[in-house]
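Recall the central idea of this unit: under ordinary conditions, the amino acid sequence of a chain determines the structure it adopts. In this exercise we apply that idea directly, starting from the sequence alone.
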Amino acid sequence: TPAPAAVPTPPTGRAGRGTVLVVEDEGLVRMLLVEVLEGDGYTVLEAADGTTALARLSEAAAGREGPRPSVDLLPPVDLLVTDVGLPGLNGRQLAEAAQAHYPDLKVLFLTGYAFQALDDRPGDGEDGLGRNMRMLAKPVAVDAFRAMVRSMLSDG
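Accordingly, the structure predicted from this sequence is:
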């Protein structure tokens, strides 16, 4: 029998704090990202497309407004991790729509394309990305992904 696939082990130290929404249309990639984040102690929500992601953000934001009749309140989202090349509403459009409602939301783009995939509109930073936005190239190294998430969530 073949050996089981190696599952990334969480780094030692403080458990992750915060809620991350992972938006990735490739199921296996999404599953790996969720597994890594949950293993590191983060609360993770997931979506396969931008429209579903906006609904999840809205549901999570309702938790900020106080209790509601629903039994399962979602925690507010601290970080949006999204593929740029989503079908329909792409990652950049998703991020802009999300930040229009939640201006302090941090966004980590994952892309197999060059920066041009995010388009040529100027951002707030030298890299052309907007406020509270970062990018990692695919294929994403697990250690680089962990470090970026930890860095973004520890920045105020």
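Confidence is low (pLDDT under 50) at residues 2-14.
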